[in-house]
Amino acid sequence: MGTRMAGKGKALELRERPPHTEAKHKLLQSYLGAWFPILSKRNGRLLYYDAFAGPGRYSGGEDGSPIIALKTLITHNHAEPMADTEFLFLFNEQDKACAEHLESLLDELKAANQPWPKNMKIGVTNTNFVDLTTEVLDGLGEATLAPTFAFVDPVGIKHTPMSVIQRLTSYPKGELLVYFAHDTVVRWCGAGNIDQALTDLFGTEDYKGAAGLNGSKRSQFIHDLYKHQLHTVCDFPYIQSFAMYDDRGKRLYDLYYCTRASIGLDRMKQAMWKIAPSGDFSFRDRFAGMDVIFGAEVDTTPLRKHLLEHFNGKAETIEEIIEHVIVATPFASNHVKRATLQVMQREGLITTNQVRRGSFKDGTVVSFPGVP
Ligand SMILES: C[S@@+](CC[C@H](N)C(=O)[O-])C[C@H]1O[C@@H](n2cnc3c(N)ncnc32)[C@H](O)[C@@H]1O
């Protein structure tokens, strides 16, 4: 633990950043690097809401999520075309010393990046997530929240009721990256002593169905129920979760990314594959820095098999195939052409209407001969 002084002189213990937190930050950075330019194309104003912002720094000097988000935009190589979009960054942190520490870091960041871009506005609030979110949304009345990426990253289960998540994400183009305390929920869901908190968290009492299950069945039940609630209560068609394990192999928490746009799902899946190259949508502290064990190439054998079965006897455009891969398989758009279709073409498993082999430009029709 390192000690830093918070803005008004109160000592603040910064936390160490374990490898799974670094992995979370890489996901965020990678995804925002795509979200900012994609959304800025058609929107004059975007909101990045880091609802549990933390102090902005870890004990080894590593950046926290608010600083990561700002630096991703400041250093973005598409900054110029995004200049007409107003980016609002709202950082909320309940702990006073943490909030003050964050504010002092934001001042430093602004001082180091003068002139500060006119289209980047920052607000810091020092209150709790439920109160702030309710106040902001009540204040909107009939108005609509700007397209928002909400990063909801608490510790524990008590601060993120499904009803508030639902309200926050009910606006057009709303997206969510939310922490879910998998280990805590799996352990306590049958105990009966924190049922009100669990009911609020899930927005249902159905978690009680896990009480009679053990081991991986219980874990899967809880994972799937939270996903189901985000689907049905918050009306998110596309959800991808990602599991974080500590150095003893315990599954600490899951992140659930939720969107209504398949392009968002695609970009987040690409970010997840980067830090989990074996394709299991998880990160283990034990294997941190041992990327070599996963091999350099993504194994697309399951995707080739899936496409043959799914498109058996059909001809589809490359756009339709890619869309299907994004929304109906664990793979992402960057796995389709070179690593999958080119290999299938070489093996004589598909044909296309293109003269040049290996070319899958827009409009290409790919034929999957039927299995007799
Ligand atoms: C996991 S940390 C956030 C880490 C940060 N997102 C990052 O990645 O660098 C959670 C933070 O939420 C704050 N917090 C706890 N309960 C809160 C609440 N109800 N509303 C807002 N912030 C809260 C804690 O003080 C803590 O700093």
TrEMBL record:
Alphabetical list of InterPro entries matching this protein: Tcm_partner
Domain of life according to the entry: Bacteria
Protein name: Three-Cys-motif partner protein TcmP
Organism (species): Kribbella hippodromi
